[in-house]
Amino acid sequence: MSAADELAFTPATELAGLIRAKKLSPVELTRGVLERIERLNPRLNAFCTLTPDAALAAARQAEQAVTSGAALGPLHGLPFSVKDLALTKDVKTMFGSHIFAERVPDVDAPYVRRLREAGGIFLGKTTSPEFGWKALGDSPLTGITRNPWNPDVTTGGSSAGAGAAAAAGLGPLHQGSDGAGSIRIPSAFCGIVGVKATYGRVPLWPVSNNDSATHAGPMTRTVGDAALMLQAMAGPDPWDATSLESPPADYAASLTRGVKGLRLAFSPNLDGLRVDPEVAELVASAARALESAGATVEEVKPGFADTHDMIRLMWGAHYLGNYGQFLEQWRDRMDPGLVACMDEARRWSAAEYVAMRAGRINFWDSVRPLFERYDLLLTPTVSVAPFGVGKLNPDGWPQHRWDWFPWASFSYPFNFTGQPAATVPAGLTPDGLPVGLQIVGRRFAETTVLQAAAAFEQARPWAARRPPVS
User: From residue 293, how far is each of 296, 458, 459 by CA, in Å?
Assistant: First the structure.
């Protein structure tokens, strides 16, 4: 592998040190990443909008700051990407939809502003399905995003391009968002680390109108990089009335604590969810690795209330409320599955929605007791390994016009509760496809989640693996 390729897979934590020591030029790094994107993006379709001129200009400014001895931010000179659902000043924000194909905002979302202020070099926007409505990687506007481990299988979604870009070495730091698993699912399918912190830890703007379910967070190849990026994104912001008041902990400094003395619950199926055998085997092995690292791991039956009807009703209702105004004019140019989802949602009454929302609030009372006994919960991240592009559901699973939730049912319960959760690579199936281990923490305890993720990464090193399309 060439020196440029090695640089592409060097963790951000190491790149930052090289830049500060004047051993690596931000311009050299940014140019190398842009060249990789130019070479690999036609195969992967990870980026839908690139800003190479602005990125190189920012890199030159970053290099000048290093040379002059100016104060440097924690992400100084490090390239990063932003998902197409996040507002970016003077850069197209299309939401993966023909409806907004020409929209150029005049403001950054708070976490985009913070990533820039921390010294990061903005590369461009990564792909998402239309309005982030599904856990897959295709959009009627930007096409199919392909998995670097096998271009014939999906990246998952909705942070599809971020997952593909991180896995293929198209920059070290990538922002994702997660309303029902949209950071964790593509991270698992692409063999990377994805973290959603406690709801409100990373401020949003506009605040997503889906009943406080959406989280923003990092998608990276290493836990250390995720901690570094989350540190820059997190903290209260006056633009987001739902953001948490307390500042973030020093995540990076806490990673070496390990898991000794922690009590971990392991649920292979959350009391009955279907899991493909090859996934179940890898995740059980991953749980045993954390036990070997010093944690107490006990298999449990969590007793959580069922939430499939809840997610189906609320998902459709939120999309209909937010985007139903466009159906009459744009129906024929929208994702047919999204249209079917919104059409079905028309049959729900306001009373039924409010009753289901009460169920969501009460759902916490079925989850809370487990986390009063255990520090963390381990589960599969997704029930299946990555499956063929263009499919809404894997072969052999129930097929539906729009409902993709059955194979992704490990993720959205923890959007309902607002808990922190991460996914880390648990291994490869016999077909060479990644599988993820999900680590769920108590509310406000993303530091513990990151510590367990780091302990697992140390026990089962992963970041040196390269997908075939890289």
Answer: 9, 9, 7
- Separation CA 4–CA 139 (nearest Å): 31
How many Å apart are CA 249 and CA 447, to the nearest integer?
7
Mean pLDDT of the chain: 97
CA 323 to CA 341: how far, in whole Å?
11
Which residue matches tokens 């108590």?
442
Q: Give the CA count within 13 Å in the CB-facing half-sphere of 291.
A: 13
Distance CA 345, CA 128 (A): 22
Evaluate the CA torsion angle 161, 179, 450, 12 in order and state its sign.
positive
| Nearest-angstrom CA–CA distance, 148 and 433 | 10
Q: Which of 81, 83, 196, 470 is catalytic?
A: 83
Q: Of 182, 243, 409, 411, which residue is the catalytic one?
A: 182
| CA–CA distance, 468 with 44 (Å, rounded to integer) | 12
Residue with tokens 């049959």: 347
Identity of the residue numbered 212: S
Q: Is 158 a catalytic residue?
A: yes
Residue 102 has pLDDT above 60, yes or no: yes
Average pLDDT on 52-62 reads 98
Distance CA 121, CA 426 (A): 30
What's the token pair of residue 467?
A: 């997908």
How does pLDDT run across 222-244, given as a tens digit for each residue? 999 999 999 999 999 999 999 99
| Percent with pLDDT over 70 in the chain | 100
pLDDT at position 5 is 82
Helix or strand or coil: residue 117? helix
Domains of the chain: 80-459 (3.90.1300.10)
User: Catalytic site residue 196?
Assistant: no
Q: Which of 81, 97, 139, 158 is catalytic?
A: 158
Does pTM surpass 0.90?
Answer: yes
| In the block, residue with structure tokens 């589960």 | 379
**Mean pLDDT within 75-94:** 98
Whether 182 is catalytic is yes
